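the two lines:
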Amino acid sequence: MNQAQPKPPQSPTALSRPFWEGAAAGRLMIQRCAACGKLRHYPRLLCDACYSDAVEWIEASRRGTIHSWTVAHHAFHPAFKDELPYTLVTVDLEEGVRALGRWTGEPPAIGQPVTGAFVARPDGVDLVFAPATA
Amino acid sequence: MSLRDRSCVTGIGETAYLRGATKSAFELQVEASLKAIADAGLTPKDIDGVIPIGIVSGTADDFIENFGLPDLRFSAQVPHGGASPAMALQAAAMAVANGVCSHVLITFGRNISAVAAGGNKAGARIHNMPQFHYVTEFEHPMGASAPAQLYAPMARRHMELYGTTVEQFGEVAVACREHALLNGNAVMKKPITLEDHRQSRMIADPFRLLDCSLESDGGAAVVVSAAERARDLRHRRVFISGVAAGHPDSPGSITQRPDMTSLGLAKAAPRAFRMAGVTPADIDVAEIYDCFTYAVIRQLEDMGFCAKGEGGPFVSGGRLRIGGALPTNTHGGLLSQAHVWGLNHVVELARQLRGDGGRAQVAGAEVGVVTGYGDMGDGALAIMRRE
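prediction for all of em together
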């Protein structure tokens, strides 16, 4: 669908490029400290436990539970006007970090098990969660 | 050595608050600054410290040049959004208590109407600010763009964990509006009811329009002076008795915050109350940063006015209204007076403690608290008392 105004761009940095490359391939990548093994997200330069900047990237499960949510009824950026209302969910991932994503389905509930997938949009991908299937 | 009672708010100034101002942000800032300096009984050349709030209008150098300041000894930037005014009180108190300088001007002006007319509305502005870079990169592209959308999950979780209700949010909105109507300098001029609040259009569930603070133009300023110097100035002294700042975990991302219902104020408040030697039970009047109704409920809990999760019941039954047990935002707040990053809250607390609150005066107000809440949960507070 044509959009009058493009959405805010997904702009990888040197620090976050593996996340966005993974997302484009449908994989949710998060940082793991190569020195002590602590997982972290969003991407940061240093491990806040051991201060190492050595990083490896691992693929997260995209499974988790709803931590909280909101429904946007007002477009603060014009590119989202045609999508109103839309739901955003904050998800506790099994790996112990969180992700923000869009939501499809009935209104979510805190604690509800969910699974995420990357869904293509004209200029990239969105992480979209849905109720977990048994 | 403690900062308790070592500094005073000696001057306060405000422009008219409105929408569609024709003056620039800096013009508004200068107007408020001159009023605050005159209110203290000082001249501009007495100012030897400047803290401009934010980087949206005049710099310290602009004040040297326009006021002809002969010897500016102290300046600082406090880059924490709406927490900056209360954090600036901390910086100013430290500066004057240690003899670095004598009179610090804390000053702010904004013409948000002009900024918004240029296409830079609330959903776009914060993405020019480095402290929002995680939101800008990972959340804004999905449509989580503006503070209302970013803070809403905090409020939703509080509602689901503790049973906080729409009516309790409405209590905050109605109290602020009622107080704004007592104030000759408030943007909002019509009364609202709890039902008006409930019926107002949804912005970012659970926030309705009347849960959200205003976009408005204006300037505000205060002068903070060394306590000994304040003795000779125009007004009864209003001491800064306790002041502290704190930051939430994961300040750059609410999504990643371990406990998204806890703010930086929770860390700061015990420090400030201890410094002042008072408890929440001693507070006669409160000016609480009200970017959203929920933020007031949250901060009341973080300061210990009630236990965590009990903020909703606490604000019910008119407790926050003048005549209630804890008159709050006696000027109307960001929700109904004006949004000048909460420097208007500092002005109002000093006014109340001088006894100059006019129709909104809280009888016998001797001790009060003002808070700031910035960016995604940075916090600060100052406890003040009158001499």
